[in-house]
Amino acid sequence: MATGNINVSVENIFPLIKKFLYSDHEIFLRELISNATDATLKLKHLTNIGEAKVEYGNPMIEIKVDKEAKQLHIIDQGLGMTADEVQKYINEVAFSGAEEFLEKYKDSAKDAGIIGHFGLGFYSAFMVADKVEIITKSYKDEPAAHWTCDGSTSYTLEAHDKAERGTEIILHINEEEESFLEDSKISELLTKYNKFMPIPIKFGTKTETLPKPEDAKEEDPAPTQEVDNIINNPSPAWTKQPADLKEEDYKGFYRELYPMQFEEPLFNIHLNVDYPFNLTGILYFPKLGQDMSIQKDKIQLYQNQVFVTDNVEGIVPEFLTMLRGVIDSPDIPLNVSRSYLQADGAVKKISSYITRKVADKLSSLFKNDREDFEKKWNDIKVVIEYGMLSEDKFFEKADKFALYPTVDDTYLTFEELQEKIKEQQTDKDNKLVVLYASNKDEQHAYIAAAKDKGYEVLLLDSPIVSHLIQKLETSKENVSFVRVDGDHIDNLIKKDEETISKLSDEEKEALKGDLEKVIPTTTYTVQLEAMDSTASPFMITQPEFMRRMKEMQQTGGGGMFGMGNMPEMYNLIVNTNHDLITQIKDATAEAEKERLIKQSLDLAKLSQNLLKGEELTDFIKRSFEMIK
Question: pTM to 2 decimals?
Fold first, then answer.
């Protein structure tokens, strides 16, 4: 048996690092600014603990573009490097200076905000540059160093006359990446990745208008001056304590995050936990309404104020991805390019925490100001209902504050609803029957019929209502939901006395035969019912189970039931006590009987929005003939 060590050739791996380390070449700027930030924060920490005997001052990071020389400069005023440190940290690929620093000062530096972990970020520069220079001077009293590399495994390292503490990285941009010499491109990347970095970042200057002198004339122009253009906010709202922020601060930060979003958020949730993991952030509830297709990926993930991604799948439960805001955690494990989340137990804990925090906030809003909560319900219900469907723990909490509006615009919790309908809306097995409508206009006649009987009708009109009802029926005992235009409610609700039919059994048998000659029985099941004479002569309903399964198919849930494409099947409820039914029964001419049946069926279909195309044209033509 032979044993040995696998030899990794630097000559082979270096080109791979340059080409494939990051999926997006633009990441190089984020990585280099992150390194500059680390260098500055390290210096701050060392001065705080008295190890660095220098003045920290008010350092900033500066980005300069020299289009003529095809150079991009990243300059910091951090702790810098000696020649030996350049040799150690730059020439030894994947040796992370941040990792070593954190290990050395693990007790005192745990909250220092150091970002780097893999020691590879610097090499992202070679994705866009033919040559990279480092000019650096340490805070220690040692000479400055000048490192140069042309993208091969060869480099030069020599002394330099740089006098100021800090590091300057000079990228000689290659021809294919010259877009990174455009001010607009750099400005775009700085805004995207570095908008909230903890150290001020300067990119050029801007003109600032000054107040006019007291003796200035009205027509005199206001004086101006050139000032540093700081592109970032080093102290964003999520880094502060909730007690230090007012409502206007939260709204201002929302506008800072989404400058093109003109509608104010409904409310916010401030996340702030330091055990068993570190996580801060602010989540906002925008007005969502009924739109399930609202743009997701609006929550931004940061790591120590460095933008990582706006794909927070896994960290934020899916039902909350319709929210907006920021999450920042140094404990979320990322792969080497910081672009994708790794599977990790900490992520699941963070997800559970966010779910619980959102549920607690909603519960608090409900308890403290129910009237306001009811006003906002239609704008937030999609998120809450989706959460109740997908997260059992959220369902348990939301069951106390989830609202069920009625067609009369009153709002009930499920417990209140049960109490209200328990005496009247039960079936023959004493099971509670919850009636609901999904569209007040389309189901108006059915709603009116139910209300005439004194029944309470909910308005459940969200796009996932069929899924939610299924969940509620599973989790609640002795409760069933029936849409008002579903299976005929007189069959489901327990009645004190039966309505007697005007027709004998023989007459009903003959009538049914006449109806089935005209009505397509492959689509409609004819059911003769004795109802009040004022009720509609023909009513079309759809079996609750079948209609619900079809709706669930349309919203992505039908596949799990193995239904395939379910056929259109309806019940045709015929009121045997209506005068029109008597007229149909007594008609002697077959043509007249058929005309009455067709017209009545089409009217019933029209009330259910089922009459379209050629059938609608024929109905209109027939109606004009009858008027004539």
Answer: 0.76
